[in-house]
Amino acid sequence: MPKLPSYRITDLAEAISPDCKKPIVGIRPGEKIHEEMIAPADAFCTYDLGNFYVILPPNPNWEVEEFVKIYKAKKVNTGFSYNSGENTIWETVESLKALVSKV
């Protein structure tokens, strides 16, 4: 899983249609605020490869030590979570405009 920037839906709306009204009506019951890509329960099998995270199967049919050596993988801390709420890299309205224009 590549480490990607997060973005706010309001910034995406601004990038797509800057002149439209964009009222925020609030959060609905059960609605998520942040997307969680790696849950704390997955931390036991998750490795950091620099630009990527890899979640290995609990019982792989290969040597994990060899995988760690070849890819210089680092085990994440217990309880690790990868989610948009804690991400430090964010898209801006300008970068979203550039992305949208490519589509």
How is the secondary structure organized here?
Layout (H helix, E strand, L loop, with lengths): L8 H8 L19 E3 L7 E3 L4 E3 L8 H8 L2 E2 L6 E2 L9 H9 L2
Antiparallel strand pairs: 1-5, 2-3, 2-4
Helix pairs in contact: 1-3
How would you sum up this structure, described in words?
With 103 residues, this protein is α+β, with helices and mostly antiparallel strands. It has helices spanning 9-16, 64-71, 93-101; strands at 36-38, 46-48, 53-55, 74-75, 82-83. Helix 1 (9-16) packs across helix 3. The protein is elongated. The two termini are 22 Å apart.
Radius of gyration, in Å, reads 18 Å
| Tally of DSSP β-strands | 5
Structural class, by secondary structure, is alpha+beta
**How would a textbook summarize the main sheet?**
3 strands, antiparallel
Order of helices and strands: HEEEHEEH
Number of helices: 3
Strand order of the largest sheet: 3-2-4
| Amount of helix | 10-25%
Model regions low in confidence, pLDDT < 50 over at least 5 residues: none
Characteristic terms for this protein:
single chain; 103 residues; alpha+beta; three-stranded antiparallel sheet; 3 helices; elongated; Polysaccharide biosynthesis protein CapD-like domain-containing protein
Could you write a compact summary of the structure shown?
This protein is α+β, with helices and mostly antiparallel strands and 103 residues long. The chain has three helices and five strands.
